């Protein structure tokens, strides 16, 4: 995932490797489900990719397998949630949020039942498998549906806190996970609150507003820029909806430019959400939306795809320098 | 309540729902009329529900998958006292909670439905919840025959049998019509009984307009470890001569003359029932 230079920066920043967020999800869910027998994991032949084998072994009575049938997965989850259960319907995000979108819209969000939808292997986690398995539409699709909180954790800490928050939630929640091992980005004292961005670093030349598995690259780019005399604010925007509009506006007022970063189509995701917030507040600042452009997505590992589209320390630092130098 | 009393109620509620659809200028008349007896038997004889406590965790659940036949559900719920009946005159009006499909804003309604092919999966989830809690309550859902072209129904049918959900009853309003025409011509979903049997369900057939026959089939205990499908043979537009078996009444709204003619037929039917009692 990381170039030699990026690895050196990781070491310089003292970032420690964690595990894939999916493993953290699974471990947290087992912990919660042991204490609350109403918590149920649902899988669509996806317990392997969802890292839910340990859950299946530990709590077999609390796992419901529906087979390869995502519409049924979400409908069943809605029925369970309407009857006092707390379902975590876990399925590759590419299928969950496309094939079962109508069930998400009607059975979960419109009926307002407290189901949790867990989109796994999201973005280009399955980069080499082609567009069928890429999930670059999910945030856009769900942002346009009323009554669902969208959370995209950046590391194991955010994952743990997001899963706990989802378990407590009285309304629908979508959690989006990739499958790569994540570096731990947060200090022990960090507080996680749904709907509140976390500032990882402060600066005034540029603000990176990043989400999910891209956040670490923004943090490395900020460190890289510091060597070149530019300071950068880095926000982990773990909650896409409701968006922390105040944090976006603050970043734009404090910094000379904004760069959003997401593992998603540049259409309808975090970047456009931030742009809409800025424009409607009358805050005008040079801005770039970094994500997957509207083209047939290049294939390869997640790292290859990230590098190809400039979602890397080097790519983001260059985007920032170009943007700032034009001001 | 006797069979005869429910039969009279069915006639009176037919009148009421036609009036409401006429006032609202919208509604799914044909399907309302085909499923009315099914709903009356469910809500008066089968479902363990308390209109004074509609969220009792131990209630039976009813999910109307063919959500468009909501006017029939509204008049039956009102008759059972879930909400004041005159409120139904706001049907489809600005900001009314009585919209053209079921929503949980209306007391007694479990889920927001209306898009076809959703209710059976939801019902499977509910029945699984009851099984997980070893709870005695049961789940009933009403499906349209045209609706069964939605593939999601068959995902749910598979899962219901796989999980041995003998606490689940799916009733098919088998009126053989859908919006475009006869279901056999639009997209044949027959043979329905064979299909559900092949998916592992107990299948029972019934005259969907006979109060005693519906009562009998819905009070039969399930075959252990199998979900039950009741195929209710019905007539779309039932009870109004010029609406019966005519697909144009799928969502046809009676004008003043048609309403008067329909009410006259129903008055005569009511008089016959009263004379015979
Ligand atoms: Mg029909």
| CATH domain topology of the largest domain in chain A | Rossmann fold
**Interface with most residues:** A-B, 28 and 33 residues
CATH superfamily of the largest domain in chain A: Thiamin diphosphate (ThDP)-binding fold, Pyr/PP domains
Mean of residue pLDDT values of chain A: 98
Bound molecules: magnesium ion
The major beta sheet of chain B can be summarized as: 5 strands, parallel
The amount of beta strand of chain B, in percent, is 5-15%
The rounded Rg of chain B comes to 18 Å
Give a summary of the structure in a few sentences.
With 327 residues, chain A is an alpha/beta fold.
Account of the protein in words:
The complex is a heterodimer of chains A (327) and B (277). Chain A is α/β, with parallel strands linked by helices. Chain A folds into two domains: 17-183, 3-Layer(aba) Sandwich (Rossmann fold), CATH 3.40.50; 195-325, Rossmann fold (3-Layer(aba) Sandwich), CATH 3.40.50.920. Chain A has helices at 4-13, 21-35, 53-58, 70-82, 93-96, 101-110, 138-143, 156-168, 215-227, 245-254, 270-280, 302-308, 313-325; strands spanning 16-20, 39-43, 63-65, 86-92, 116-120, 149-151, 173-176, 181-184, 198-201, 206-210, 232-236, 239-241, 258-265, 287-292. A seven-stranded mixed beta sheet of chain A has the order 3-2-4-5-7-6-12, with helices on both faces. Chain A has a five-stranded mixed beta sheet with strand order 9-11-10-13-14, sandwiched between helices. In chain A, strand 13, helix 11 (270-280) and strand 14 (287-292) form a beta-alpha-beta unit. In chain A, helix 1 crosses helix 9 and helix 2 packs parallel to helix 8. Chain A is globular, with a radius of gyration of 19 Å. Chain A starts with a helix and ends with a helix. The mean pLDDT of chain A is 98. Chain B is an alpha/beta fold. Chain B has one domain (3-276): Thiamin diphosphate (ThDP)-binding fold, Pyr/PP domains (Rossmann fold), CATH 3.40.50.970. Helices cover 42% and strands 10% of the residues of chain B. In chain B, strands 1-2-3-5-4 form a five-stranded parallel beta sheet, sandwiched between helices. Chain B is globular. The complex binds magnesium ion. Magnesium ion binds next to loops of chain B.
């Amino acid at each position: 995932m990381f170039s030699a230079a990026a690895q050196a920066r990781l070491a310089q920043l003292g970032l420690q490797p964690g595990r894939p967020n999916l493993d953290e999800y699974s471990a947290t869910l087992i912990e919660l489900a042991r204490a609350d027998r109403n918590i149920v994991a649902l899988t669509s032949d996806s317990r392997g990719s969802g890292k839910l084998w340990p859950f299946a072994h530990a709590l077999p009575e609390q796992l419901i397998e529906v087979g390869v049938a995502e519409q049924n997965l979400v409908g069943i989850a809605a029925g369970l949630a309407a009857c006092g259960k707390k379902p975590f319907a876990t399925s590759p995000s590419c299928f969950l949020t496309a094939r079962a979108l109508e069930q998400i819209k009607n059975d979960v969000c419109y009926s307002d039942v407290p189901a949790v939808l867990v989109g796994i292997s999201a973005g280009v986690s399955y980069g080499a498998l082609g567009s069928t398995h890429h999930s670059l539409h999910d945030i856009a699709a769900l942002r346009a549906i009323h009554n669902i909180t969208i959370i995209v954790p950046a590391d194991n800490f955010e994952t743990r806190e997001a899963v706990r928050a989802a378990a407590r939630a009285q309304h629908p929640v979508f959690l989006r996970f990739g499958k790569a091992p994540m570096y731990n980005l947060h200090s022990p004292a960090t507080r996680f609150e749904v709907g509140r961005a976390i500032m990882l670093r402060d600066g005034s030349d540029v603000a990176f507003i990043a989400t999910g598995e891209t956040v670490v690259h923004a943090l490395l780019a900020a460190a890289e820029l510091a060597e070149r005399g530019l300071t950068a604010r880095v926000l982990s925007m773990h909650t896409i909806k409701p968006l922390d509009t105040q944090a976006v506006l603050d970043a734009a007022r404090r910094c000379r430019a904004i760069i959003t970063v997401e593992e998603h189509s540049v259409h309808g995701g975090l970047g456009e959400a931030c742009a809409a917030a800025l424009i409607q507040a009358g805050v005008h600042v040079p801005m770039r939306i970094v994500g997957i452009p509207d083209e047939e997505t290049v294939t390869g590992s997640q790292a290859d795809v990230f590098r190809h589209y400039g979602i890397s320390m080097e790519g983001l630092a260059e985007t920032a320098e170009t943007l700032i130098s034009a001001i | 309540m006797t069979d005869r009393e429910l039969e009279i109620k069915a006639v009176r509620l037919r009148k009421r729902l036609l009036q409401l659809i006429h006032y609202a200028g919208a509604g799914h008349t044909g399907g309302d009329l085909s499923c009315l007896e099914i709903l009356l038997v469910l809500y008066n004889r089968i479902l363990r529900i308390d209109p004074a406590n509609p969220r009792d965790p131990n209630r039976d659940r009813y999910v109307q998958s063919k959500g468009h036949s909501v006017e029939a559900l509204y008049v039956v719920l009102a008759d059972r006292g879930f909400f004041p009946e005159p409120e139904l005159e706001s049907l489809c009006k600005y900001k009314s909670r009585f919209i053209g499909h079921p929503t949980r804003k209306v007391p007694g309604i479990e889920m927001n439905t209306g898009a076809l092919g959703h209710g059976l999966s939801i019902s499977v989830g509910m029945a699984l919840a009851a099984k997980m809690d070893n709870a005695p309550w049961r789940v009933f859902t009403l499906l349209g025959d045209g609706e069964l072209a939605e593939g999601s129904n068959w995902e749910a049918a598979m899962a219901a049998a796989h999980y041995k959900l003998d606490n689940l009853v799916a009733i098919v309003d088998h009126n053989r019509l859908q919006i475009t025409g006869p279901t056999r011509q639009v997209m044949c979903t027959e043979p329905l009984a064979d299909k559900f049997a092949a998916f592992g369900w107990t299948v029972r057939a019934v005259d969907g307009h006979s109060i005693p026959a519906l009562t009998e089939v819905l009070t039969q205990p399930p075959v252990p470890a199998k979900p039950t499908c009741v195929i209710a043979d019905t007539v779309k537009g039932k009870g109004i001569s010029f609406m019966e078996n005519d697909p144009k009444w799928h969502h046809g709204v009676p004008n003043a003359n048609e309403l008067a003619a329909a009410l006259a037929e129903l008055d005569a039917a009511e008089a016959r029932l009263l004379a015979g009692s």
